[in-house]
Write a structure and sequence with these properties.
heterotrimer; A alpha+beta (123); B alpha+beta (480); C alpha/beta (412); B: 480 residues; alpha+beta; six-stranded mixed beta sheet; C: 412 residues; alpha/beta; FAD/NAD(P)-binding domain; Immunoglobulin-like; five-stranded parallel beta sheet; 6 helices; globular
């Protein structure tokens, strides 16, 4: 049996949840709406996370463009995704929302830019 | 004649500058990456009035004349000197008797303007002093300065007048033949010399021993300090506050700094003489507690939540608690050692004395240079100019309008000047411009200063050091 | 030297300043100028590449730079907003209403009809927490470490310990770990964490980074670069307990030990809270001088940037209303009652909504927040799990508020 305490992040209310796993079944207590049950269940079985990081940019007014996953991805894949980001290089200009990598590791999530990087051409 | 000055602290630098007035070859040998980074870097920055020094001491000969020389020195070398006066506070009758002692001693030492003040006068002048004070000794000639800037400015001026500076150069051997100094051997090469002036601060006894010269054994006396934010405490006191001195020394002061902050310190802890302790500038809990309790006694409204920096410095102390200055048993070898308090104050007078001493003991007459340039141009602080003048400066040079250190108003132009004058590290820029000295302690500007240094020196940002070779700030890139 | 008359001058183009410009421009003033000392607008948002912004303001979870871009897009819709970067506010003459600004173009003296201060906060430096030891390289405040990693593409070190479990410290614990820096621990002097629960989970628990509560750093050592950090447990009076020392061999210390509102430029003529150093304002954002308004972290340290932009927009709006028709209503005190540690704003101006932000003095598991105006109860509600580290926002609409001093209390 596994019990975990957590704060639901589905809305600003932040209900304190107690999530219990017993004989393959998951019980959630403390939620004020069904989204809490969903969150508690997910968090105990396959925690998902939005990953925010950076990717190297060439010829930009900044050396890095901040990026994020377009939706939460399995926490267990984070380190692998990081390795891919570390070896990714793109060229300026970059606009917020640009897809840097589509469907990373088949998660259905894209790696998208979260800032603009202007192009500067070094003489 | 070729003279080597070992140590580019306040004492060595002023001696080197004095020597550069004459037709002699002056070389300055400094083991650190910059000048003024030893004893000179961390002390109370006080130019003492001179009533503390007991008659018959070497200190008593040089403190008052040194104090007087600071006026012209500050003008020529363009460093900050503020003669704000000092008050030695007495809270008990026994302490008042000590004040009277000091008053007499001061008169003996020719200290001008001494007065004993009563409680009302003290509190009307300094309302933040503990109202339990009963009397104080007022000395109008006491002042505050910027000790590393004394060294920086003196070295710049000496070099402008022909002296040569060797940084990161450590003396490892001094060769004497027939009781006469001949060669100084360093980790970077050898120098054939006719004379050596030993101003090696915490290591002056070691240097003297290398030459087989007279010396006094030194041990470090650690002093801890707390600096309060000028944005919070500027104007809290307007003069230097001392407690009544004890056998341990002048005690913990509460004083304004030339930058506008309030400095509390030092403590006084004797350390063992071994080498490891001569580099130990660590602060301690006991030190902080002592500083806070002593300061609260003198100025009960002081609030240490406004502290922005803590540090410690070492004073080279001898058993005699006095300077050892002048000629030695080795021909051509001169000491300016055990420069404990009031070393900074005495330094200009010792520099002048050293010239006489060298001439007399070596039987040489040093010829003054006809083209000696006494004035050293400081880095212009644009934010201190009236706005209309600053505007003109910016029109001539846009970087005079590009603010880099926001808290202390240092522009990019000033930082570039500091680099031109030899700054290679963060501390090099800091100590020449006061960038990063303010409330945020570099939080907003350190990365900007590193970028400028990297650009000007043609290196990567990660190669910029804090102060010494191994004090790197960054470790590699996030993405390559 | 140029003199420039302007309706509304805003100091700072961070979340609050941009919000203020929008609020003022919407009121229809002819010109709003924002002067920003950094190279770009956006303030601290530019380096906060993590998520958690915009849930209230944009109903979307965004990263810092995305949030900044959205706000900037709104600013661009108003032709009467002029954003100027690399402008340094040098001095203010509050009697003559002159603001002297320096830039590479020269000195400009602005003569604004009203001023909105949005200067944000600075981090408490190492010297502010009196830690014994040496002063080697390798000590960073969290914001500086964040700046290097996220904007300058440089790592601060290889093995780090983080002091302070506020959100900034927690976010940096995760960021550094993801970039290959070994984070050995997060140290917190209070008996409870300083940041949001979700950050404890996603920044520490996810990466098995230990959190030492009721601990503080008691020594830092290293000759030129940091080598060792010593922590110890604290007793109820926050004094280190001898014998509980733990040594960590690290080369990097990241300090997240508090934010201080930047109000020094105004301390000679505006009322500043002596404890927090925040500029004291009313519900309209107005300071103690009728033509100067303030918003954002320079008034009180906020938890959410959404609130900052909203309060900025309020201050901008009323700054503009002051310009347009000398709007200056009656003012009442907003008093801190039982168990209230931090309370914003300090005054209530008639005709405005009361957006209250408070922090409790101590953790309260179950309590009632009560807001009274003379004999009228404006608000009374049970709140659970209140912590000083989690700011509570309560909005009371103008229609519900009458006249008289207001008191806010938290009853156990």
């Amino acid at each position: 049996m596994r019990v975990e305490e957590m704060v639901c992040i589905m809305c600003p209310l932040g209900c304190h949840l107690t999530v219990k796993e017993e004989n393959g079944e998951i019980f959630v207590a403390g939620n004020k709406c069904p989204r809490g049950i969903e969150y508690g269940r997910q968090e105990l079985t396959e925690p998902l996370r939005i990953l925010t990081s950076s990717v190297l940019v060439e010829r930009g007014d900044l050396p890095l463009v901040s990026v994020k996953t377009s939706k939460p991805v399995p926490r267990k894949l984070i380190m692998q995704i990081m390795e891919i980001l570390k070896s990714t290089k793109i060229e300026a200009p970059v606009k917020v929302g640009d897809v840097i990598i589509k469907n990373i590791l088949d998660t259905g999530a894209d790696i998208i830019a979260t800032r603009n990087v202007e192009r500067i051409d070094v003489a | 004649m070729k003279i080597a000055v070992i140590g580019a602290g306040a004492v060595g630098s002023l001696i080197a500058r004095e020597l550069s007035r004459y037709d002699v070859e002056v070389i300055i040998i400094e083991k650190n990456t910059d000048v003024g980074m030893g004893v000179t870097k961390a002390n109370s920055a006080i130019v003492h009035a001179g009533y503390d020094d007991e008659p018959g001491t070497v200190r008593s000969k040089f403190c008052v004349p040194g104090n007087a020389l600071y006026t012209e020195l500050a003008k020529d070398l363009q460093f900050d000197l503020k003669r704000i006066g000092s008050l030695v506070l007495a809270f008990r009758d026994e302490e008042v008797r000590v004040l009277e002692e000091l008053y007499k001693r001061g008169e003996n030492n020719n200290v001008p303007g001494l007065e004993i003040w009563d409680r009302d006068k003290i509190l009307s002048y300094e309302p933040n002093i503990n109202p339990e004070v009963i009397a104080a000794l007022w000395a109008p000639t006491a002042g505050i300065t910027e000790p590393w800037m004394v060294a920086i400015a003196a070295v710049e001026n000496a070099m402008d007048n022909g002296a040569q500076l060797y940084l990161e150069t450590e003396v490892i051997e001094i060769v004497t033949i027939d009781g006469r100094v001949r060669k100084v051997v360093t980790n970077k090469g050898e120098f054939e010399v006719d004379a050596v002036v030993n101003a090696a601060g915490m290591y002056a006894d070691e240097i003297a021993k290398m030459a087989g010269a007279d010396y006094v054994p030194l041990h470090p006396r650690k002093g801890e300090y707390i600096l309060l934010d000028k944005q919070e405490f500027s104007g809290f006191v307007k003069s230097i506050l001392f407690p009544t001195p004890s056998l341990l020394g002048k005690g913990t002061l509460v004083t304004p700094t030339v930058d506008g902050g309030i400095l509390v310190g030092p403590t006084a802890v004797d350390m063992p003489p071994e080498r490891e302790f001569r580099e130990d500038t660590s602060t301690t809990f006991e030190g902080f507690e002592a500083l806070m309790s002593k300061a609260l006694k003198m100025t009960p409204l002081i609030d240490f939540r406004a502290s922005i920096k803590t540090f410690a410095g070492l004073r080279p102390e001898s058993p005699q608690k006095d300077f050892l200055v002048g000629k030695t048993n080795i021909f051509g070898f001169f000491n300016a050692m055990a420069m404990r308090s009031p070393g900074l104050t005495a330094a200009p007078a010792i520099a002048k004395f050293m010239i006489e001493e060298i001439q007399e003991s070596m039987g040489e007459t040093l010829r003054p240079k006809l083209d000696f340039k006494p004035v050293r141009e400081k880095i212009k602080k644009y934010a201190d100019l009236p706005p209309t003048i600053w505007d003109e400066e910016i029109k001539r040079d846009p970087l005079a309008g590009k603010m880099i250190c926001f808290c202390n108003k240092v522009t990019e132009r000033e930082i570039l000047e500091a680099i031109k004058k030899g700054a290679r590290t963060i501390d090099g820029v800091k100590f020449r411009t006061r960038a990063m000295f303010g409330s945020c302690q570099g939080g907003f500007c350190m990365h900007r200063i590193m970028k400028i240094l990297a650009r000007e020196l043609g290196v990567d940002m990660a190669d910029i050091k804090l102060r010494s070779d191994k004090s790197f700030i960054l470790m590699g890139q996030v993405r390559k | 030297m140029i003199e420039k008359n302007v309706d509304v001058l805003v100091i700072g183009a961070g979340a609050a300043g941009l919000g203020a410009a929008i609020g003022a421009a919407r009121e229809g003033v002819s010109e709003v100028v924002i002067v920003e000392r950094d190279e770009r607008s956006g303030g601290i948002l530019n380096q906060c590449i993590h998520n958690g912004f915009g849930l209230h303001y944009f109903r979307e979870e965004l990263s810092g730079p995305e949030y900044a871009e959205r706000v900037k897009k709104i600013v661009q819709q108003y032709p009467n907003i002029n954003v100027k970067v690399e402008q340094y506010v040098h001095q203010i003459d509050y009697r003559r209403k002159e603001v002297v600004v320096a830039s590479t173009e020269g000195i400009t003296v602005y003569k604004p009809k009203s001023l909105v201060v949005a200067t944000g906060a600075r981090e408490r430096p190492m010297g502010g927490i009196l830690v014994p030891g040496t002063r080697p390289a390798g000590v960073f405040t969290a914001g500086v470490a964040q700046r290097f990693v996220n904007l300058e593409n440089r790592l601060p070190g290889k093995r780090a310990i983080i002091v302070g479990s506020g959100d900034i410290g927690l976010i940096m614990a995760r960021r550094l770990t993801l970039e290959g820096v070994e984070v050995v621990a997060v140290v917190e002097r209070m008996p409870y964490p300083g940041g949001l629960e979700r950050n404890i989970r996603q920044c520490l628990k996810d990466f098995n980074i230990p959190l030492y509560l009721s601990h503080t750093v008691v020594g830092i050592y290293g000759k030129e670069r940091l080598e060792e950090v010593i922590i110890a447990q604290l007793d109820e009076s926050y004094k280190p307990i001898p014998g509980t020392e733990k040594k960590f061999k690290v080369d990097t210390l990241v300090l997240s030990v508090g934010l201080i509102p930047q109000s020094t430029l105004f301390k000679d003529f505006l009322k500043i809270d002596p404890w927090t150093k925040g500029i004291v304002t009313s519900s309209s954002g107005r300071s103690s001088l009728n033509w100067i308004f303030a918003a954002g972290n320079c008034t009180v340290i906020y938890d959410l940037v959404d609130w900052v932009t909203e309060e900025g927009s309020v201050a901008g709006k009323f700054a503009a209303m002051y310009v347009r028709n000398n709007w200056e209503p009656a003012k009442f005190f907003v008093e801190k009652g039982q168990n209230v540690g931090i309370l914003f704003p300090s005054w209530y101006e008639e005709g405005t909504n009361l957006n209250l932000y408070l922090r409790v003095k101590k953790p309260i598991a179950e309590g009632t927040i009560r807001i009274k105006q003379r004999n009228n109860l404006l608000y009374s509600k049970k709140h659970l799990n209140m912590l000083p580290s989690e700011m509570i926002s309560i909005k009371i609409p103008e229609s519900k508020i009458g006249s008289g001093d207001i008191i806010v209390e938290v009853l156990e």
